[in-house]
TrEMBL record, chain A:
<keyword id="KW-0256">Endoplasmic reticulum</keyword>
<comment type="subunit">
    <text>Part of the multisubunit TRAPP (transport protein particle) complex.</text>
</comment>
<keyword id="KW-0813">Transport</keyword>
<dbReference type="InterPro" id="IPR024096">
    <property type="entry name" value="NO_sig/Golgi_transp_ligand-bd"/>
</dbReference>
<keyword id="KW-0931">ER-Golgi transport</keyword>
<dbReference type="GO" id="GO:1990071">
    <property type="term" value="C:TRAPPII protein complex"/>
</dbReference>
<dbReference type="InterPro" id="IPR016696">
    <property type="entry name" value="TRAPP-I_su5"/>
</dbReference>
<keyword id="KW-0333">Golgi apparatus</keyword>
<dbReference type="GO" id="GO:1990072">
    <property type="term" value="C:TRAPPIII protein complex"/>
</dbReference>
<comment type="similarity">
    <text>Belongs to the TRAPP small subunits family. BET3 subfamily.</text>
</comment>
<dbReference type="Pfam" id="PF04051">
    <property type="entry name" value="TRAPP"/>
</dbReference>
<dbReference type="InterPro" id="IPR007194">
    <property type="entry name" value="TRAPP_component"/>
</dbReference>
<dbReference type="GO" id="GO:1990070">
    <property type="term" value="C:TRAPPI protein complex"/>
</dbReference>
<protein>
    <recommendedName>
        <fullName>Trafficking protein particle complex subunit</fullName>
    </recommendedName>
</protein>
<dbReference type="GO" id="GO:0005783">
    <property type="term" value="C:endoplasmic reticulum"/>
</dbReference>
<dbReference type="GO" id="GO:0006888">
    <property type="term" value="P:endoplasmic reticulum to Golgi vesicle-mediated transport"/>
</dbReference>
Length: 194, 166
């Protein structure tokens, strides 16, 4: 019989419930989609910096939506007003939902007060990507940096976020670090809030 | 006794202390009036974008004053939003007998409600339901954050919620 066992169809997206649904998406599907995203952007730009910027902008849109959705679903409608709060939110909740595990580490920069780093042995988005030698320091993790920037910006913590490869002795593949540099107003506000 | 609700949704784009009245750049402020059951449509201001405004009002002449009261309460909300973790900020400002209640989302989008004295519970549930609707709109990848919400279905649902809770 046709239609038996089909999930209930909603006329409008606004009527659909916001429940979790299926948590997992096929990794290969994502890898293909991401590779197509990168290739498409490569045809549109002339240099690496522009390509990184485009990937970041794509990630920014994702970050904005992830922030709203996760605060509603996971945190029971509580916002983050403190710096450490939002950083641990990103490091654990956001990473868990997007990549299936919490990030490897969250560190505070030693040289500057306003720098923080989220490190990951191998970013999920970079797993099937090999960067040719002539592209130098290009990192597709710029997409993830964009996601982080989207979350921070919309939560009221403007920051500059970049992704870097950090070579580690004894390991073939370098570690990836997401470097977060907060704007001054964030530090002023943190100091004011005590 | 007239039944009044004015309802505004703001997207908080930049953290600055400029009040609404002294924004130095206003992009094409348009006001379109449809009928006495009013939906005002505003396009973007530079620093803050109003996405949706719904008015239930019997007397139109009060409409501008109510909008003004709501916009004037924005500054208070900016400061208050950083003092607490909660999303529902309850009543934030008063003007004569009118009270402004505010609900701030994680992305610093503000839902503001202007009303005369009502029960607090109804308003909180109203805001929570509208928040869910807003998230569904926001999740649309083709929706530009901060732009006007044009879905008529959204409009119908918000009005139904208003009738139910307020």
């Amino acid at each position: 019989m046709i239609g038996v066992g089909k999930a209930k169809q909603y006329a409008n997206v606004l009527d659909k419930p916001l429940s979790r649904g299926r948590q997992e998406v096929s990794l290969s599907a994502f890898a293909f989609l991401f590779s197509e995203l990168v290739q498409y952007n490569q045809t549109q730009v002339d240099n690496i910096a522009e390509l990184e910027r485009r990937l970041e902008d794509a990630g920014y849109a994702v970050g904005a939506r992830v922030l709203e959705l996760l605060c509603h679903r996971e945190k029971g409608n509580r916002r983050e007003t403190r710096l450490l709060g939002i950083l641990s939110f990103i490091h654990s909740t956001v990473w868990k939902v997007l990549f299936g595990k919490v990030a490897d580490s969250l560190e505070k920069g030693t040289e500057h007060e306003d720098e923080y780093m989220i490190s990951e042995k191998e970013l999920l988005v970079n797993r099937f990507i090999s960067v040719p030698k002539d592209m130098g320091a290009f990192n597709c993790g710029a997409f993830v940096a964009g996601i982080v920037r989207g979350v921070l910006d919309n939560a009221g913590f403007p920051a500059v976020v970049t992704a870097h490869f950090v070579p580690i002795e004894g390991q073939q593949r370098p570690r990836t670090t997401i470097l977060i540099k907060f704007a001054e107003e964030v530090l002023h506000r943190e100091a004011r809030l005590g | 006794m007239f039944y009044l609700i004015t309802f505004l949704v703001f997207l908080y784009v930049h953290d600055n202390m400029m009040g609404f009245s002294c924004c130095n750049e206003v992009q094409a402020g348009m006001v379109l009036k449809y009928s006495c059951d009013v939906l005002f449509l505003y396009s973007l201001l530079l620093m803050e974008c109003m996405m949706c405004e719904i008015l239930y009002l019997e007397k139109e002449d009060q409409a501008y004053q109510h909008q003004f009261i709501l916009h004037a309460a924005l500054d208070v909300v900016q400061d208050l939003a950083w003092t607490t973790n909660a999303m529902s900020l309850k009543s934030v400002d008063r003007f004569n007998e009118l009270v402004v209640s505010v609900y701030v989302t994680a992305g610093h989008t503000r839902f503001m409600l202007l009303h005369d004295t009502r029960t607090e519970d109804g308003i909180k549930s109203f805001f929570q339901e509208v928040h869910e609707l807003y998230i569904k709109i926001f999740l649309n990848p083709l929706y530009l954050p901060g732009s006007r919400i044009t879905s008529s279905h959204f409009d119908t649902k918000v009005r139904a919620l208003a009738r139910k809770y307020l």
